[in-house]
Amino acid sequence: MRRWLDLAHRDLVRHSPVLNALNVFPVADSDTGTNLAVTVRAAAEAAGVLETGDVGELLALAGQAALEEARGNSGTLFSVFLTAVGQSLEGQTRMSAESVRVALHAGHVRAWSVLSDPVAGTMLSVLEAAAAVPVPQDVGDGSNQQLKDFLGQVSEAARAAVLATPEQLEILRETGTVDAGALGMLVVLDALARTVGGDDAGDEAALDRLIDDAAARAAGVLAAPHAVHGGVEVMCTVELSPLDAAELRHELSEVGSSVIMSAVSEAGDGYRWRVHVHVERTEEALAVIGARGEAVNLTVTSLSEADG
């Protein structure tokens, strides 16, 4: 799992220029690749210093660490997904195809649940496709070969889901491109399949062809004129009870969009929540959040294309 996160980070860094160029939804701010790479790096660094033989504990703690440092919608959703996968696998020192199938389903459900307005044709569709892959029955049950075959099929299903994204989102039909977050999640899942398959170098031909094609289409997107989007992305951590968190989610949805709230860890009588929202002005979000609790680990990023 440590090698998986390291490989996923390296691959995301390598493909970030293409992912950034493809970033047109929910806001064309050209940072999906960068956000995913930074977030996965946080998970990889945390996993690198954790001493445990429990696969689930390693991934859950790495996911929580990544969530605290998550960047953007894509980074936040990856962190939520990884945490849920880890929690599903807790107590296990090795993985099987069946345990990973259940874990992928848990990650998919958690990622959908933290969004106030989940949208198909995005990273969520890739997670849904991965979670729907059945365990192959033509090899030994619980064997390493079954796990390798299963993850190979997960990667194939994720690739098909990426290619289908232009049919699911109007903006992607207009640009003729695939979704950046969906493609980034494919990079992550493909790295998992290659790592568990026993060779980090792996056969990357199919993924590279897809990304080369996406890069060619992205060049056309960059050449076309775009409207400049305003507003900011606000992310912070706040300690709240589950009831206050539910009310805060509703209140943020009234003043902004792309609201994501996920519990990071227990704290006092409640939890530490990672909050993500897009608003016109920073003050709008901070006023709503501040009425419920103290915002810490705060980051504010411009959503203007002019700021890149």
Task: Describe it.
- It is a single chain.
- The protein is of the alpha+beta class and 308 residues long.
- The protein has two domains: 1-222, Alpha Horseshoe (Serine Threonine Protein Phosphatase 5, Tetratricopeptide repeat), CATH 1.25.40; 232-302, Alpha-Beta Plaits (2-Layer Sandwich).
- Helix content is 60%, strand content 12%.
- The chain has twelve helices and four strands.
- It has a four-stranded antiparallel beta sheet, with helices on both faces.
- A hairpin with a 2-residue loop joins strand 2 and strand 3.
- Helix 1 packs parallel to helix 10, helix 6 (123-131) runs antiparallel to helix 7 (144-164) and helix 7 (144-164) runs antiparallel to helix 9.
Strands, helices and their partners?
Blueprint: H1 2-22, H2 32-49, H3 55-69, H4 72-89, H5 97-113, H6 123-131, H7 144-164, H8 170-175, H9 180-196, H10 205-223, E1 232-240, H11 242-255, E2 257-267, E3 270-279, H12 282-290, E4 296-302
Antiparallel strand pairs: 1-3, 1-4, 2-3
Helix pairs in contact: 1-2, 1-9, 1-10, 2-3, 2-4, 3-4, 4-5, 5-6, 6-7, 6-9, 7-9, 11-12
Descriptors:
about 300 residues, alpha+beta, Serine Threonine Protein Phosphatase 5, Tetratricopeptide repeat, 4-stranded antiparallel sheet, globular
